[in-house]
Amino acid sequence: MPHLTAHLAEDRLTGNEPALIAALTDAVVGVYGEWARDLVSVRLAGVPAGRFARGGKAVDTNVSVVLGVRAGVFDRPDAARIAARLGAALTDAIARVVGDDLRAGTMVELVASPQERTFVGGALAV
Q1: Which of 63, 3, 60, 6 is nearest to 28 (CA)?
Q2: In the 8-state DSSP scheme, what is residue 81?
Q3: How many CB atoms lie within 10 A of CB 20?
Q4: Which residues, 6 or more positions from 97, have their beta carbon under 8 angstroms from its beta carbon?
């Protein structure tokens, strides 16, 4: 069950929400396959001006994407390729929708959750 949260400058996010949700969902589906579409959960969080920083200075060109994935994906022989594809596809989605000037400041973090620690609706997800 891929679920992601993207934090980016509020003024860059406003008005782009539907397109960004679609692009991020399509990016995950492009790696996992169409079967995953209904399982992709997207949360967008706007960060007020002055609250993203790099090198000790406020910037509006940073994006943080955290994608929660099942830990088993990293046990596959093609794990490195899948991880690279997810990182590139999510970065491309952000840049395409919100602006290519965000590409260099986009960080994608893949966070692994063991199957026995993933719950939906209060029940263990299978």
Answers
A1: 3
A2: H
A3: 21
A4: 16, 19, 20, 23
- Tell me what percent of the chain is helix, strand and coil, each rounded to the nearest 5: 50, 30, 20
Coil/strand/helix, residue 45: strand
Whether the pTM exceeds 0.85: the reply is yes
Q: Is 23 helix (H, G, I), strand (E, B) or coil?
A: helix
pLDDT tens, position by position, 51-105: 988 889 988 889 999 999 888 888 999 999 999 999 999 999 999 999 999 999 9
**Contact assessment for residue 67 and residue 23, using Cβ atoms and an 8 Å cutoff:** no
For residue 21, the one-letter residue type is I
Residue 66 in 3-state DSSP? strand
Residue 124 forms beta bridges with which residues? 119
Number of other CB atoms surrounding residue 101 within 10 Å:
11
Do residues 24 and 42 touch, judged by C-beta distance below 8 A? yes
* Tokens matching residue 41: 């959960």
Task: Please list, in sequence order, all residues whose beta carbon lies within 8 angstroms of the beta carbon of residue 5, skipping any fewer than 6 positions away.
Answer: 42, 43, 44, 45, 65, 66
Strand partners, 110: 67
